[in-house]
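Quick entry, no commentary yet.
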Amino acid sequence: MLNQILATYETFGYKFLVFTGNEHEDIERKYIQELLAYKIEGMIILSHTIPSEELASYNIPIVTIEREDKYVSSVNTDNYMGGIQATSLLAKTGAEILIHINAEFSPDIPSYGRIQGFLDICRERSIPHELILTDTGHSYEESTRVFRRLLDEIDQKYTGKVKGIFLPNDTFANILLNLLIQRRGTFPDDYKIIGFDDSPISREAIIPTSTVGQQIDKIAHTTMEILTEQIKERHKRKPMLPDKPVHKVITPILLNRQTTSPV
């Protein structure tokens, strides 16, 4: 996403200063105050840390991506549709139990739509399912330990059944794939896996993993369109900003690869 945003320079002509706060509110607030002192034109926020109501109070053009966005403009993937796409594909594989693993977070976060899409399809079609909400770790090593434990529990609970697993991102899908291959020597027939994002790891995995692809280039371009329009309007009637935030939703693309082959 960051690469795509930076690549918009040729089209929109804006240069970027990039900061990461590592989920520390105080650090992010300090960055923002310093940036405001530089007379910046606007901001793009991917961090989930500072509430949108506070961001709106800075009275500067802001567009957020994939985070809580009630009071500011935003561009998000249609996560609900993505959840429906992923769950429907797993159902078509012949999986006997569908499982979605995710972290616990507020329904105000756009990616919660992935959870809701999963639940709605399973309930609508009366598909046996389980939603596992847990701490998924904050590093690759932590996440690997979490998924090793979850795999033990799933294997024991659903022995002999074909299990369709919907992961919230491609990194977790790859971790689960690697754990299964380490245990079985190959990708087993009783597991079907799909991730989310279409990040490079999904294509480069030892067995390319199915995923729901976000149109990152389109998200970045749309974000810059909204931000640029707000900047132009602010120049006309400084310091006023539009009364209502603009929210754009980008359609995801289902990518059916080798980890969701029919039984």
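second:
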Amino acid sequence: MRYAVIGTGWIAGSYIEGADIAGNWELAAVCSRRRETGLAFGQKYGVEKVFTSVEELAASDIPAVYVASPNALHFPQVKLLLEAGKHVLCEKPLTATAAGCAQLQELAAKQGVVLLEAIMMLHLPQRRVIEEALGKIGRITSARIDFSQLSSKYPAYLRGELPNIFNPKMATGSLMDLGVYCVYPALTWFGKPERIAASAAFLPTGADESCAAVLTYPDKLVTLTCSKTGQSRLGTEIIGDEGTLVIDSISKLTGISLAAKDGSRTELAGEVEKNVLMSGEAADFYRYITRPEESREEYARCTALAHAVSSVMEEIRRQAGIRFEEGIL
């Protein structure tokens, strides 16, 4: 199936490589505000067709689009593409608000097209490894899910520049960029919590540099932490009374091990290259489009989970005081 990408950053390149691994996909065009940037990016992948506006892309006959633009642009761009009858895979977060997420999902259903938020963990074989392991650690009493990664853009910020990731006008910050990877597994494995308590630390720009939230369940506490200005070395732990599941990278589901009560450890999954990780979501995106009947329940779970995550993220933002410009959906 032919597809286009919006965006020319490293994540778009990784997705293109992942789609090649998945098979069944043919990159047909690149969409970039600057033609020269789009041409230079497209040449790396043997593509010469460049659109300089989403409106041009929407009017084309390309049936599917991968959106990797800044967060604040996701809602208007995806809405335009859905209205044009395109299938859309959009980088996380799909939207900044639960209302925006619901609006896009309703539009996709009305148009009879697939709309998917790009969350690698839902489409990785390692997820099943983890879910099997969760049944071996007894009664789960607590979990600490962390994604703290020192941003490659932080030196530019310290030089006085304002990268998108530290600009609230772009609906970014640590929660939206990294915290979403913590909320997804929490809701996937434990469901929606009874209560949420959240707080954040801010840069002078107004962007949250770190954020923490405690999700309270009837039988457990789940703590979520994320940061863009520091690097965690501990990863994630899910703690039961019979053992502990350790996950080095919660976004990639790599470095997974099971620690028994006596401290002995069994390795369950190692490292995986980023393009291979992204091939899973590319393969499922194609399957949801081309085999809707067999994929209906799985796709419906992804859609429901995306909205639930958006709702929890919005509540965390409200409590933590993370604010974006008025009108961003």
